[in-house]
Amino acid sequence: xxxxxxxxxxxxxxxxxxxxxEQIGKGSYSAIFxxxxxxxxxxxxxxxxxxxxxxxxPTLLNEIxxxxxxxxxxxxxxxxxxxxxxxxxFVAMELLGPSLNDxxxxxxxxxxxxxxxxxxNMIYLIDFGLCKKLYLNDGIIINPSxxxxxxxxIKYASINAHLGKELGRNDDLMSLIYxxxxxxxxxxxxxNVNDPDEVLRLKELYQGGSLLVKMPSEFKxxxxxx
Length: 226
Hints:
Helices cover 20% and strands 23% of the residues.
């Protein structure tokens, strides 16, 4: 895990361009720092995400490709630059505000709000290291030929992820439902469970709609989806 250390401290200069301010987050594969672009006429604060070059299963390159593909779209951080610094690969991007989970004291910061007056009421989606492209044939998604492997956080992973199946858009929606339920109710039935098999059992138990009992009425049609 990447940490602030003697060789990587606040005040360090990255690529003769960015001054490191402080660490603002970390994940399973990376660490995120606030930095200042010292080559700008006016100080520009940015977010810099670092990942060890020697990581066995790197994800940052995938995230960089997604950010470049999303350039110009709203609700996604603006991509600035990529490169290497010491033993790490990095990407510099738009610095956003607190995550929704920070605002309600949760722990899954994949949704954040804007950092300016103009964007403070906008929600941004971040962290694309595990994203993949879906390929189409005449408008139909091509089913992968290989079995998938587990990716993501056990707490929010879909049942298909637990079963080692290849994931698709329906799995993204299932993970989103788990996050929304936790944001609204404050917890998930498996929120304090660490055993993956028990988490899977509880997800299957609540799959029939009981998970949404305390949710607003707008969620009732989700029970009817296949």
